[in-house]
Request: fold
Amino acid sequence: MSYMRGFRDPAAASRLMDAVRATVQGTLRVIEFCGGHTHAIMRYGLRGALAPQVQLLSGPGCPVCVTASADIDQAIALSGRPGITLATFGDMIRVPGTTTSLQGARARGADVRVIYSALDALELARALPQREVVMLGIGFETTAPTIAAALRQAESEGLANFTVYSMHKLTAPAMRAILDAGELAVDAVLGPGHVAAITGWQAWSFLPEEYGVSCAVAGFEPLDILQALLACAEDQARGEPRITNAYGRGVSALGNSTALRLMDEVFMPTDAAWRGLGVIPGSGLAIRPGLARYDARQRFGLPGMAEGPLDAEAAVGCRCGEVLRGVVEPPQCPLFGAACTPAHPVGPCMVSAEGSCAAYYRYRGIMDI
Reply:
């Protein structure tokens, strides 16, 4: 198979694939949470290579994709206020709100800056003392500690013109919401390796304990993913769902205590609106009241939670919300590859580099091998 040339160790990959196929009883349905896993699976042709014994479904693991349209609308409105400079990661600037995007707002004169880290936003605040610099806090548990650290740094420097608009999301509540909805029947979950590096793999033990679903925390190399799938297949064969850490070089049981402590000092859980999933209790992160002067929601009188459409693009036939829930695959959307492409995206699943639609489109030439 030509795609095997992309593997660092094709022989090991072949052995693992054979082991997975030999171990699976009937069909093994696995949903990966992380967009990084989706891209790796597509890039290396794992989805096609393991079918039909293994069905790999993509989940909501793209923080830009799951940001509700109403939150984007609020960010766009905020960017239009006099004296405000909005700092955001690059993917976010093209994600559509109800009528436009941050890119559209910038074209109309809003001061929207693309940054690569929270430190960049701090530097903007230092360089522009006459303006209010608002950083969009986007991401899962992997990003939240860095933004918490930036907020603490602003506090220590007394930067009065720096705030964070927190739209952070927590992964475990979203996985619960997907399973509770009953739209999917899955045997296992590929746990997000980068998230688990912060939270610890034990944070995902609720899956076998409460839902009877195996979970294997996986890295992002193809051998990592295959090893995790083999663990899931072995659980299925034994009829004993469990939690497996298949990413031992990056993930421990309890995670990164420093990052977790920093998150807890700055943020507290709150309800959050997710594109495609609705409002999920305790799935967001709000800035604690003691740090309200650095909370853009408080400083600028924004609603505590987005009010308005969650999936504005659904009105034109985009099925991004269903893709995020794993209910449909991107090619099942009537817009995929035609009206919706990376050059002219309709929904965020095609905009973001981590989006499922972007992965299917980019690797469409090998994904069905």
Confidence is low (pLDDT under 50) at residues 1-5.
